[in-house]
Amino acid sequence: MSLTVLMNAGPWLSVPPPGYGGIENVIATLVPELRRLGVRVVLASVGDSTLPVDELVSVFPEGQFASLQRPYNQVCGVAQAHLAGVVRELHTRDDIDLVHDHVEAVGLATLTAMGADAPPVLHTLHWDLAKHPALYGTLDGGGRVRVNGVSASQLARAPQALRDHSVGHVHLSTPLAVDADRRPRPAKGDHVVVLGRINPGKGQDLGARLAHRVGFRLVLAGPVGPYHRPEDLAAAGEEARQNPDVRFFVEEVAPYVDGDLVRWVGTVAGRERDDLLATARVALFPLRWEEPGGTAVVESLALGTPVVGIARGCLPELVAHGRTGLLTADEEELGELVLAASVLDPDECRREAVARFTPAVMAERYLTLYERVRKLAATPRRPAWREESHLTAFDMAGGPS
User: Fold this and answer.
1) Host H or E run for residue 362
2) Which of 4, 128, 176, 368 could hold 302 in an S-S bridge, CB 3.0 to 4.6 Å?
3) What pLDDT shows up at residue 71?
4) How confident is the model over 213-252, as pLDDT tens digits?
5) Which domains does the chain have, with CATH numbers?
6) Closest listed residue to residue 156, CA positions, set 27, 337, 292
7) Measured between alpha carbons, how far apart are the two ends of the chain, in Å?
8) What is the model's pLDDT at position 382?
9) Which strand (E) or helix (H) includes residue 310?
10) How far is CA 267 from CA 47, 86, 203, in A?
11) Is residue 43 a contact partner of residue 31, using CB atoms and an 8 Å limit?
């Protein structure tokens, strides 16, 4: 395929990220498959990204994630500086067929503002679409900028203007799903795991409370704000509580972390994360928000671990209730479902991942969307005044036409 795509990952983390990094991990999973299919990829990221690509363009030498904890008036220029670099790159070359953008809000706004002479854009929505109502509610991509979701449920909750620009959804994938049904499966331990950044939407406080009430061992794996290890948070002192995620952990989760029934192990990555998930009895998702994508869900299934969770957001799309997991709308029932999930077959979870959540499946789907976006951008857009006006030719010309 003769296609050159500028993949805009943003300035926050390298690709692949050193540990936690949802969007950057998605890009690191997608790009190798696109290149295998013949797509030339220009990655717009930070200088220390190590993902093999055809070209790397960057403004910052390393990830700026730590800057996100600073006040807005000190950090607001970071994403804009990165996007300014992307715009300069697009202005100085004519070989980019499409921009695949992953930068929240400012990516969409900047690339839309470039005008008709810029390449077509597919902007992937990775987050809660209730955010940024003034941007999403008035979006006009000029026929050149389109969006996609990471689940159907995410798009169903989007503002109308955003849905009008949608070309569909693409579920997330994981390299762990490749040949997942053929790999040796480790023995299950006695622990349940909640994997992900610790914050109110992920519901770690609910999971910890249920662990004590029902009596199962729970491992919380993920960062708290900028702190990836328990010792880092312990050394940070009271100033750390200015971060809302830290405050949530200290006030709502930490009282249940006893080192026995409930443990917080910080960020886990690579083989350590895979082993933790693969040996877990259950991957628990005690969600209090509408999860848009669910990377940890597909990773759990690929590693043969059934999913138990609140039936919100993308979970009903990803989990086959009674076959690869158990879902409920009742928070109090969640603890009992953790125990009931022992009857589910880990191998069925792995087979489901192979069929639905491999990088190849995701890349093929994105290729289809790329072609759709390019065709839509090449179609002349009917001027808005012709679509909306009820004036006749006589009225507009001041007399007979």
Assistant:
1) helix 359-378
2) 176
3) 86
4) 999 999 999 999 889 999 999 999 888 888 999 999 999 9
5) 3-173+358-385 (3.40.50.2000), 176-356 (3.40.50.2000)
6) 292
7) 49
8) 54
9) strand 307-310
10) 23, 31, 17
11) yes
- The answer to whether residues 12 and 106 touch, using CB atoms and an 8 Å cutoff, is no
Neighbours of 221 (CB within 10 A): 23
pTM score: 0.88
In the structure, what pLDDT confidence band is assigned to residue 1 with cuts at 50, 70 and 90?
low
CB 315 within 8 A of CB 296: no
Please state the φ and ψ torsions of residue 41, each to the nearest 5 degrees: -120, 125
Handedness of CA 300, 305, 309, 314 (dihedral sign): positive
Element (H, E) at 45: strand 39-45
Segment 117-167, tens digit of pLDDT: 899 999 999 999 999 999 999 999 999 999 999 999 999 999 999 999 999
The count of C-alpha atoms lying within 13 angstroms of the C-alpha of 185, restricted to the half-sphere facing its C-beta, is 21
What confidence tens digit (pLDDT) does each residue in 314-345 have?
A: 999 999 999 999 999 999 999 999 999 999 99
3-state DSSP call for residue 248? helix
Cα(2)–Cα(291) distance, integer angstroms: 35
For 381-393, the pLDDT digits (tens) are: 554 434 444 433 3
SS3 262: strand
- The answer to whether 60 and 46 have CB atoms below 8 angstroms apart is yes
C-alpha–C-alpha distance, residues 7 and 102, integer Å: 8
β-strand partners of 264: 220
Per-residue tokens: 254:
């930490």
Give the number of other Cβ atoms within 10 Å of residue 356's Cβ: 17
